[in-house]
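Render Potassium voltage-gated channel interacting protein 3 in 3D.
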Amino acid sequence: MQRAQEAMKTSDGSLLGDPGRRPLRKKEGVKWQRPRLTRQALMRCCLVKWILSSAAPQGSDSSDSELELSAVRHQPEGLDQLQAQTKFTKKELQSLYRGFKNECPTGLVDEDTFKLIYSQFFPQGDATTYAHFLFNAFDADGNGSIRFEDFVVGLSILLRGTVHEKLKWAFNLYDINKDGYITKEEMLAIMKSIYDMMGRHTYPVLREDAPREHVERFFQKMDRNHDGVVTMDEFLETCQKDENIMSSMQLFENVI
């Protein structure tokens, strides 16, 4: 009984329903802070780990770093422009591109690659559905592939963006059909995909209906006019006023 209660507490208030971490509470005296731009924080991101594991050694040809390779089918924008668009340093962009080039010689990432990445990092669960949703959130134009520019701009928001930027990106993730609203069904689909990916071997152990209860609590807070959907404004306003939700933004990178 006590473990079930703990499980409910763990899933309550977390933006992504992270089953392995408890949201920070006011009584713990910890306030949400914008993450510092550290390599340690960067390396907790699955997508960054995947890219940097394939990055060439530091002594490789520096011409690769300038993002002007003619060998790839899709040539990315210039390094200076990407540095202006993101919050990555020049060296970080160079490393990210070297790894991206090695893994994706065409200059594009497809959905199958995302599924492979997350199956490797979360072998204890089924990451297929979550990888599908995450890919669609990165695939801004919906053409079935992600360019390096889109990839690093998305990562920059998720890892180093402002609160407002991260919440807008999270809304886009939940808004599966991209109609500008989040329904209970959409939020439940995302929540279930995260629980499935994390696997059943989490502590505290979560009950099967934990994702649905999580969504019900969310909608009670967010759906201000009780019309059955959550708008961007409702989402942003509710999240920024809720300390549990804001604390969970620190955990966002754990499943990205």
